[in-house]
Amino acid sequence: MDGSGANNAITRHDFEQRRNALAALQRHLLAQEAEFTALREEIQRFIDRYVGQLAPLYMELDALQSQLHRTTSELAEGLRRSGIDARIPRAPKATDIAPLPRLPAGAPQPSEPPGGVIELGPPPLKTLYRRAAKRLHPDLAADERSRREREQQMMAANQAYAHGDRAELERLLLAAGEDPVKVRGGNADAIRHWLIRSEFAAQGRLRVVQAHLALLNLHPMRELGHAIVRAEARGLDPLDVMASRLRSQIAERRQQVYIGQRLQPESDLARQFLHELERRADGYPIH
């Protein structure tokens, strides 16, 4: 709709149909927002549980990874000083959990014009002029400055009436605070514009909510949480298994750090040590 022309007139029946459709859309939007909130809370509960059980182990492992990186970097630099082509190992990445998306606050919905569709014809030009005279008369001014402003406005109203300029009289009245229905007649335009703005706002918000809901559904901690719940339903304890594996990695890293810190950087043992780390796919390449 472009808001102009007789074809855009809205009947009471059309209004009720579109208002009901808008209400259904808004209910669906609220349901989607509630689904997002419930799913986010579910994933957050699992993350809290996961972090509470495994975070200390991950922190310890990350610290050892950093120590091992410093040690292997020093060994690689020593080998390079000896003429051996050794690449500096890549720095390890700290264990991290991707943040959960947050739903941005929505803008307030446009206010519905009161009274539904008001079928009232526009008042005659003479009636508009009389209302303008009552609204803008200089005798109603509170001070001299206001009187001068009202005199200018009243002159504009007189000229508009004399030239049959309805648009200018409407502008003056609306600027003075007159009820739009009393100025332009029925509120079909206001109703139609409200419907368009409300539908657009609800549809736009729905797209935002559904996009954030899709991000939640794709979050790696959601699938991990579901996998763990399924395993626990079969009597397994996957988080305990994960903790055991982390402890094994921690013990291995401790040993690697211990050995690496005691090697001479230019020695053949250092070269063998780095080759062994590479062979075990720990990300420390050496040539």
UniProtKB/TrEMBL annotation:
SUPFAM superfamilies: Chaperone J-domain (SSF46565)
Start and end residues of each stretch annotated as Disordered: 96-120
Lineage of the species this protein comes from: Bacteria, Pseudomonadati, Pseudomonadota, Betaproteobacteria, Burkholderiales
Entry-linked InterPro entries: J_dom_sf
Protein name: J domain-containing protein
